[in-house]
Design brief:
The protein is an all-alpha fold. The chain has helices at 3-27, 34-41, 45-51, 55-71, 83-102, 105-114, 116-142, 151-165, 168-173, 178-193, 207-221. α10 crosses α11 (207-221). 19% of the residues are buried.
């Protein structure tokens, strides 16, 4: 098959899958029928079946959307300059927010029950990302760029604290916007992580459009 056609088909499938993600992350997929999936994708059954032959193939596609996204985080070479730590910190922050906001316990539980091989594939990608993140924080400490704090606590913040503060109940209870929460959390992590004489490496202006994009996606999913 012509590569251009393959790319077009892949893009069309990913577009349909991304329409489905908010639904399966919120409610799981165990009870979903193919009719429900077509409705969530906003296409006819015939159109859906052009791209997906079964529910398993749909869920496999959702998993691969996330695995591909996780693997897009650019690898860092150990000999890169100090400024690269600021760039990777921002990329890691963006990805952490997106993953916490999209991969839910409900989805993971359904995935482990219904499709354990796909569950293992997704968990493997997440675990690989975790190990790369830990190595990044350790290297930053060793080179005197990051403060000497426990890198595992940093990951716990990204999982537990971040998951809590982007919750709609938290936002409503504290009368705060998702934009303000993400901005504050970004500043909190930056100041916590970088030594005072290294923090100027971080260009905050690069994060403004990133946070705006995340906020827009968050608001559209409500």
């Amino acid at each position: 098959m012509n590569k251009a056609i393959e790319d077009q088909q892949s893009q069309a499938k990913n577009k349909l899958l991304k329409k489905l993600i908010s639904s399966v992350m919120k409610d799981g997929f165990q009870q979903l029928r193919m009719d429900d999936i077509a409705k969530a994708m906003d296409v006819s059954r015939a159109t859906m079946y052009k791209h997906f032959s079964s529910k398993e193939e749909v869920i496999e596609g959702v998993v691969h959307v996330f695995v591909d996204y996780i693997n897009r985080l650019e690898a860092r070479a150990s000999d890169q300059d100090e400024e690269s730590f600021a760039v990777w910190f921002q990329q890691l922050f963006e990805q952490s927010v997106s993953l916490v906001g999209n991969i839910t316990d409900v989805f993971l539980k359904d995935l482990q029950t219904a499709f354990p091989d796909l569950y293992d594939e997704l968990k493997s990608a997440l675990n690989k990302r975790e190990q790369e993140s830990l190595a990044f924080y350790r290297e930053g400490k060793a080179r005197g760029i990051f403060n000497p704090i426990n890198e595992k606590f940093i990951l716990l913040q990204d999982d537990l604290l971040l998951r809590e503060i982007v919750n709609v109940k938290y936002l409503l209870h504290n009368q705060v916007s998702i934009q303000q929460v993400l901005h504050d959390f970004y500043q909190f992590k930056k100041i916590q992580l970088f030594k005072a004489d290294k923090i100027t490496f971080v260009d905050d202006s690069k994060m403004d459009p990133v946070i705006e994009h995340i906020v827009d996606k968050f608001n559209r999913s409500l």
